[in-house]
């Protein structure tokens, strides 16, 4: 059943409250949206409501972590990224055991428009040496990633969708930190994707197969540390890699993959993501506009494989 | 501009409410509560207080209005429409792809928007910059107004801006706090209480006026009081009701960010008394 990863996170978090007494939640007037509401009702003493003051939230979470608590700080991805200076200093540089949870990833956020869309968050979080970056592709993966984070030690960023995502994994799925997952094999190119667009990549691969193009699909739930070994393997098989993400095309998964494969001489990587600032629209309209629905991804793959089609401009 | 009576401004505020709700219902998303609480503020600003030219959005002498609580933008679009800046047909495009009427104010797409907002806490700083710019401008003279939410002013940046406005004695800057007592998750007093609010602004060097923000004459008197003070920036603490004018939306966070369905819209328009028959 389709479910937003932010919803699956909220459910997992409430369960973790019972098993992990050091888990605390720090929120800034968004518990109804980030889904920490459930935790707040079940564990009111461990729910710290700080109001619309995200800079303060990040610092408070760092302090809590330094006393042995395990803080989950939840807000929209863009508002956390907006407090990057506090994150780099109080969380990163202190190596504080804080989990930053950013919901409303990318243009999938929809009608609210650019001001509420996380489009630079992966780029920023990834730049901090000790920050790990996770992005689940469906509800089951989100649940497992949340459970993983309750026991992980060190700064971490979890990126979640506003919109419901179709199921990809069964309930017996086990989360392996730092490991990419091959969802489909294909010799012509490989789609390397993360988060809400992974399911669309699988559909795009079907569309491509109908036209005789064999596209592999790799799910990257751990953007950092990146599974470079797997990427090198799949890249050497098909030599063309199309990264797909609902994030600005600068600095996100695509850039991470390019960095990882930069020394493979015969591999061509093209980054497919959001160009320019996001805008208002339904999630469906925006995914069509940014070519992040299955048809758009298939089209991007076709352009990639057809040398005379102009490269999609980046930036 | 024709001078409107108190009753006319009151009626206009009701129409801004109705327009806001119709837009939000058509978009099937948006923020009714904070749009409705601010209707009298927008009506008095756009139809009495602000100097602007509907057809010349970049007129250098215009007063600046920054909607720092950007999620309430439907009520601003409604005011811009009634003021002759945008066409009525455009209202129904709110939040749809390619619309100039973005879900939060967009300065680049829509020229009457003075600054992009939607990430709360930033508008007062931009307003301080505009007020400082006016001080340095030998050719133009204008006032700057900034509308903030009560939840919004929990943000530290607001107080950094407040301190700087106090330091520079920005007498032509007027802040307005839409003190509707409710934010997204619940009541402001539970989430992060603001009191004693007037004392806080005073301590930062502001002239404070505390008024009924859903009352036309009180707001007009507050603007006069701001104009009369030529030493300090003024903040109008506007005591309002979230969701004002629609019984089931009043004083609750349930309608902070939820669109009314067809029946709820009909009921709301009935209560507002501005005729359910007319549409966008
Ligand atoms: C920096 C930031 N954090 C969080 C949000 C999400 N958000 C949108 S509206 C809102 C509540 C605003 O409450 P208030 O300022 O009281 O506005 P009003 O009641 O007038 O609608 C929140 C938390 C945001 N837009 N910006």
Radius of gyration of chain A: 19 Å
Bound molecules: thiamine diphosphate
CATH arch. level architecture of the largest domain in chain A: 3-Layer(aba) Sandwich
Low confidence ranges of chain B: 276-280
User: What string gives the helices and strands of chain A in order?
Assistant: EHEHHEHEHHEHEHEEEEHEEHEHEHH
Q: Which homologous superfamily in CATH is the superfamily of chain B?
A: Thiamin diphosphate (ThDP)-binding fold, Pyr/PP domains
Distance between the termini of chain A: 36 Å
Identify the quaternary structure here.
heterodimer
Biggest pleated sheet of chain A: 7 strands, mixed
Describe this structure in words.
The complex is a heterodimer of chains A (315) and B (280). Chain A has 315 residues and is α/β, with parallel strands linked by helices. Chain A contains 13 helices and 14 strands. Chain A folds into two domains: 3-165, Thiamin diphosphate (ThDP)-binding fold, Pyr/PP domains (Rossmann fold), CATH 3.40.50; 181-305, 3-Layer(aba) Sandwich (Rossmann fold). In chain A, the strands form three sheets. Chain A has a seven-stranded mixed sheet, with helices on both faces. In chain A, 62% of the residues are buried. The model of chain A has no long low-confidence stretch (mean pLDDT 96). By secondary structure, chain B is an alpha/beta fold. Chain B has one domain (6-272): Thiamin diphosphate (ThDP)-binding fold, Pyr/PP domains (Rossmann fold, 3-Layer(aba) Sandwich). Chain B has helices spanning 6-27, 32-36, 39-49, 73-82, 88-91, 123-135, 156-167, 188-192, 197-203, 216-228, 262-272, and strands at 64-67, 144-149, 173-179, 207-212, 234-239. In chain B, strands 1-2-3-5-4 form a five-stranded parallel sheet, sandwiched between helices. Residues 276-280 of chain B have low confidence and may be disordered. The chains are: A alpha/beta (315), B alpha/beta (280). At the A-B interface, α2, α4 and α12 of A face α8 of B. The complex binds thiamine diphosphate.
